[in-house]
Amino acid sequence: MKKLLLLLLPLLFIGCASKGKTETYSSSQEKYQQFWNLWNNDKEDEAVAFLDKWQLEDETDPELYVCYFNMYIDKGAQEQMYLESELPAGYSGEYMTGRNDDGDTIYMFSLIEYDDEYSAKAFEYLDKGLSYNPKRLDMYFGKAQFYFMRKEYDKQMQVIKTAVDLNKKYKGSWLWSFNETTESKRIGFAESLHEYFVKFYNTGDPAAYPHMKELSLLYIQEYPEDVIAYNDAGLSYLLLNDLVSARDCFLKGYKLDPSDMILLSNIARIEYNLGNLDSSKSYYETMAACNDPDYSGYAKEILSTYF
What we know:
60% of the residues lie in helices and 7% in strands. It has helices at residues 28-40, 44-57, 62-76, 116-132, 137-149, 153-169, 189-203, 209-222, 227-239, 243-256, 261-273, 277-288, 293-306, and strands at residues 77-84, 95-99, 105-114. The longest helix is centred in the middle third of the chain and has 17 residues, at 116-132. The model is unreliable at 1-25 (pLDDT under 50). A hairpin with a 5-residue loop joins strand 2 and strand 3 (105-114).
């Protein structure tokens, strides 16, 4: 099975031993590589012993806990086969079809699930690492991602909200893998919130929709001038069948940036669905007059077809 690494670390050597000081042990990057070389070559006992020795040498090293975290995720990953009358929402993997005794279509597919005991160990080690390294944003995001993989959306949102609170405390100054700054890695906090929204959206899982709404409203609260946040919020309300609130969010974003044709298109469509045909037509006419030929052509086609 391919190893699962939620905290993706660049294999680049940085830093060196201080002058005049003997370097007894290898760097964190080297240890990280050594561990995964053992693990990926099915030398589990040696790999675990290596981590235990590493912990004795430096129990505060964040990369140590990244390794523990991903190791227990990998150990706990189990492929489960299912035979169901329909595919899960948002499923994009391979599957086979057949028919049951009644002639109805059935689907055979597999899902990766995660053992609760190993998952608990993964979270335990990551939390310990964060207690020593509270500014490691990649570790918070790794924790949120694993809750997402386990479909524990409530717990995922709690981690994200904790990160949002800390982002204010640290004034956006975070560390990433191997303690490089998020600025040097070009990791944007606002962009990360949007990426989590997209992950929720791509699940196609109605259970994720309330969390999409919570996340997008948090995004607006933290970044009230970011039009993407309003589009995210509008989409979440749309999925929850609250068309008026969806329109209001799109309108707020559009007022911030009247050149945003995605927001304009969303407003026009919702106005049409609400029965506000004159308003909808007006927005489509505005889009038809824009300089972008794709959006302009799309709007003209809508106007000729529906108005």
